[in-house]
Each structure stands twice: as structure tokens, then as C-alpha cells.
């Protein structure tokens, strides 16, 4: 089952992907699903909260979003059909919202928030948002800087004197993933302790004495540890627990009544349950103690609250600068560091990813945590905000968001397809066994188990593949296809991997 450590960086950039910083076409289930323990059926009915009617969203004086829905029946129908198609793949249940020029175009829930109790998703459903939390943590740091309580260019040692290497690492390094601190959610034993009771100090103790992976400031490497350490800085400087500080200084003043930090001792009303998708059934996600992600991924929210938050950040005319100044928001969105050669034009700010598009700048972030995936983004220049929250770990909220943006601006997009499993001679499968090199540091291994083909990428879980033809196979839990290419003598010499519109050649190396 995919978990927090597999999803954070992949989803932050491109959504749930088999490939490193890449993504692929679409596949869909054609048969109903059933959970053997939950005894549920699929598909579940979609829950429409906002469509062609007016909606009311409780707003504060700090964030003013007009509450009139744009009345465009064809646009609403097209968006709904697009989301319904993704829902019918089995990989997506959740809620989406589309806002344009401050007006809600569309907001609707699909599938079940809780399969066991048959609770449908709606715009009031709260979801764990994973790494979208980071922008709230970054805003809190900048807010404390405005109060004169810290300086992002100061060292960690200024605020946490006993932290090893704290005199070499600045808060700016932590905010931009350039500190070199090993990522605690990638530790080999992470899955063993992620569900255990813990404290913030115990979390920091897990990485504080480890050597840095590189000299601070020299390169970008996504690390949740940096934002866990920022959580400790916030508590040390403010004198308040992280959850209390956010509530008092950001969430409550902004009227974000459905957003909060999930404490183990508190039952969160309307919180969805997270699931994995096997291709044939939904399975409850592995348990995680939500104190573990801390300020790197510990918040829950709704699509409405996230739309308000985005509006607050990127509509300066409506922003209450006493909560967060124009200068601080600008600091969050500067392209400080390139995210790598595999992601051209993508830069990391403070808790935000900046896509320097030649026509318009896009600002976003994704998240993934044990049965939940999410994406929040938009274009300040185009006046758009799109949020997609899912309680199925195999959804691709980034890809869904991009499709919604294409619909909104009348650009081309693709609907998910429904490949049919065909019967093939099992004897053909052995010819495909081997390793296929995609990039110098990433390969996929093809194996056969019990008469079924499986694929496993470097450092990733193994997943089953299903035949669409004798040479083409698809995954059910990811939007992925692979085509095997043969030489004139019939031997398999390479494969072509297809994901999110990209075709990647992969020669067979053994």
C-alpha cells in the first residue's frame, strides 16, 4: 500500500506516479469493486453540493469571496463529466472546487468519505492534506518574522541552541529544502514507528544527530525533516504549541473553521477515512499518528477552506495585511531553488512550488499521507484556484487539477479511458521478464507471479499489470501503460512507458 513516504515529493510535483518526476496516460476499471470486509459496492453515488445554484461559504472580513456561482450549465456539465470519469476508474473518491475571478464555478463530492458507514463525500468533508500543510507552516514563520521574533536568514542555532549543525543551517534552508537534513519519512524503519505515540522532541531526535547529506544551501532535496524542525522553531519562538499558534494567528482570523491540526486525542467531525486501492477493492490505509508529520503534513481541511486560503494569499486587494503582509506573501512565492533537471521550470519557494510558465505563473503544492492525496494550486494572473482532495491514495489530484484548468480555459484535455482486460497466452509473459532502464538511475523490473505480470520501479512498491493486448499492459491502481517492443527475430528488446501524455523508451538491459 502506498504511504506517506512514497507520496510526498512525487505528489508535490506531479501527482501519484510510477516514474520519477514523470507521469502517464489514463486507465480505468470496468467492473464493480467490493471490499471483502466492508462489503461495499462501487461506483458510489457522487454528492453534488454546488452546481447551478448559489452557495454560501462562511467568510471572515479578511477573505471575501463572492458567493454567486457562475451559471454556465455547459461548463458545469463538462467539469462534472470529467470528474465522474476519474471517479469511475476506481482510483478517485473525494471533492473538488474550481474558483475563477473570486467566484465559485463548481464544487462537488464523489464517492464515499467513509465506506464502512456509507458516508458520502461532500464539500463539507474534511481531508488530511499532507504537504499542503507546509505553506501554512511557512506563513507562520514569516508572520513571526513580521513580529520581530525571528529572521529567516538567521541560523537554527539562534532559536534552538542545542541543535547539531544549527550554526550551519538557516531557517531559509529549512523552508526551501536546501538544509541537507535526511528525510525522516524515508528512513527504513519509518513504517514501523509512524503509528506510535510520539512527541515533537522525539521526532526531532530521530534525525538531529545524523550527518548532513550535503552542505546547506548547495542543492535541493525534499525533506520533511526540515518542516518538522520548523515546527519546533515556531513553538520555541512563540511560546505556544504549533496547533494553538496556527489557530490563533492564521486559521481563526481567516475564518478557516474547517481546517486544523489533527491531535490524536480529538475526534474530528466530518473527517474522511483514507483508503488504498488494489485495482479490485478498497483497503483501509495504514494507521499514522498525526503528530508524526507535524508542520510538514499534519493539517486537515476542506476544499472551501483551501480556496479561501489561496484567495487570501493571491488576491492582494482583498487580503488583510495585518495577518500576513504583502512582503511576506511575496517572499513565499519567490523561486529560490530549481527542483531538478527532471522538473524544468519548477522552483521551490517557501512551502510552495512555482511554475514559471512563459504565459502565466502557476503556484501550487500537493500532498499525500496514508490514504489521502491532495493538490491546491492556481494562477494569480489568471485568477484561478483549483483544489482536489481525495481519500484514495492512488488518485492523481495534480493531473485532475490540470484537466480542470484546461476545461476552464477551453484547452485540450483527455478523459480517462477504460481498457478491457483481454485473454492472452500465459506463455507469452516469460519473454517480458527482465529489467528495463528508463534513466541512468531509474529502472523497472518486470516479473511474473502466478501467471500475472508485475512491474516494480526503483525504490517503489510492486504493482500488478493487466493485458490490453499481447504486447500492451496497464495498471489499475495508477494511470500507467507499458508496451513491449520486439525485434525482427521476435525477441523483446525494449519497452515504452506511457504516463500522463509522456512516452519514455526503456531498453531491456537483462
Description:
The protein has helices spanning 4-13, 73-87, 133-146, 171-175, 190-193, 200-205, 224-238, 242-251, 294-297, 303-314, 326-332, 397-408; strands at residues 47-50, 94-100, 103-110, 112-114, 119-120, 127-128, 260-261, 275-277, 282-284, 299-301, 337-338, 346-348, 353-355, 362-369, 372-379, 384-390, 434-439, 442-449, 452-457, 462-464, 466-467, 472-474, 481-486, 492-499, 502-507. Helices cover 22% and strands 23% of the residues. By secondary structure, the protein is an alpha+beta fold. Among the domains are: 135-241, no CATH class; 426-507, Beta Barrel (Lipocalin), CATH 2.40.128. The chain has twelve helices and 25 strands.
What's the shape?
globular
Number of strands: 25
Strand order of the largest sheet: 1-3-2-16-15-14-13-12-11
Number of helical elements:
12
Percent helix: 10-25%
- What is the mean predicted local confidence, pLDDT? 86
Radius of gyration, taken over Cα atoms and rounded to an integer in Å: 23 Å
Our estimate of the beta-strand percent is: 15-25%
Structural class determined from secondary elements: alpha+beta
Low-confidence runs of at least 5 consecutive residues: 1-69
Distance between the termini: 28 Å
| Quaternary structure classification | single chain
Major β-sheet annotation: 9 strands, antiparallel
Break the fold down into its secondary structure elements and pairings.
Elements: H1 4-13, E1 47-50, H2 73-87, E2 94-100, E3 103-110, E4 112-114, E5 119-120, E6 127-128, H3 133-146, H4 171-175, H5 190-193, H6 200-205, H7 224-238, H8 242-251, E7 260-261, E8 275-277, E9 282-284, H9 294-297, E10 299-301, H10 303-314, H11 326-332, E11 337-338, E12 346-348, E13 353-355, E14 362-369, E15 372-379, E16 384-390, H12 397-408, E17 434-439, E18 442-449, E19 452-457, E20 462-464, E21 466-467, E22 472-474, E23 481-486, E24 492-499, E25 502-507
Antiparallel strand pairs: 1-3, 2-3, 2-16, 4-5, 6-10, 7-10, 8-9, 11-12, 12-13, 13-14, 14-15, 15-16, 17-18, 18-19, 19-20, 21-22, 22-23, 23-24, 24-25
Helix pairs in contact: 2-12, 3-7, 3-8, 3-11
